[in-house]
Amino acid sequence: MIRALALALLAVVVTAPAAHAASPVSLTDGFYVDPDSNPAVWVRDHAGDGRQAAIKTNISTKPIARWFGAWSGDIKTAVSGYVNKTGTKLPVLVAYNIPGRDACGGHSGGGAGTPEAYRTWISSFASAIGSRPAVVVIEPDSLADFGCMDSGKVAERTAMIKYATEQFKAKAPNTWAYLDAGNAQWVPAATMAGRLDSAGVRNVRGFSINVSNYHTTAASTAYGNSVSGSLPGYTKPYVIDTSRNGNGHNGEWCNPGGRKLGTPARTGGGAEMLLWVKVPGDSDGRCGKAPGVDAGKFDPQLAFDLVYGY
């Protein structure tokens, strides 16, 4: 009897969410609006453009995640500088520097040159946040984008992401970090649950869905519930990127037409949070409606069209 009780208590300890000093939501009073986001900078610089008012009202004044990668320079300086200026608001950050990034799509290739370089980078990222409250999405697409990788590369990537979860658990106690789980039509839920488990999702708050994609909140919620329910002996909360899902998915992923802004950042809404992770107006790559715009670069026409669903 005593042994059975001890085993039961041990199971609770093993499967419980990672400990945090406090919820970053309770430590802040709403999401941070970045005055230097790509849309905000464009709005400041283009007062005479006929699209400016719509982009300002509907996009640049909304909470949007800040993405960090090799372009950010010294990552510790970049991340600490960002979180330290958010005051009482909750910042949302994206770590996007995994080696071999976007292996299948190719439009957002790059990342740290080696696993060793990545481990140094992501450790510095977590240290830079420290005790500040924050939300972090870890490496969009990285656990879904296995189709163009051999088993050795998959194992290598999984180990890097697991290391990232350990760093956030150890060094950023008031951060809710989420491993990315692709989208509702990419990887079967049970398969994704296995990948998340292997990559250390137990160490962090949960997982993210639909980053930089267009699937509806309803479809993403159904997928998220299925993924969480398929985890081995525990469940995890999830967040959904709603930045461009207002008209749902039309079968295209790279700057498709006819898409629309979704619900702005909020807690709840079917998931733990609805977030604008992808910056509305930032290109997916040289494709679709923006064949001349590199991935991650802001295009005002893409942004304007998202406001009205064009």
UniProtKB/TrEMBL annotation:
PROSITE patterns the UniProt entry points to: GLYCOSYL_HYDROL_F6_2
Recorded superkingdom: Bacteria
Pfam families found in the cross-reference section: Glyco_hydro_6
UniProt entry tagged with the keyword Disulfide bond: yes
Signal sequence coordinates: 1-21
Active-site residues, record numbering mapped to chain: 141
Membership in a protein family: Belongs to the glycosyl hydrolase family 6.
Protein name: Glucanase
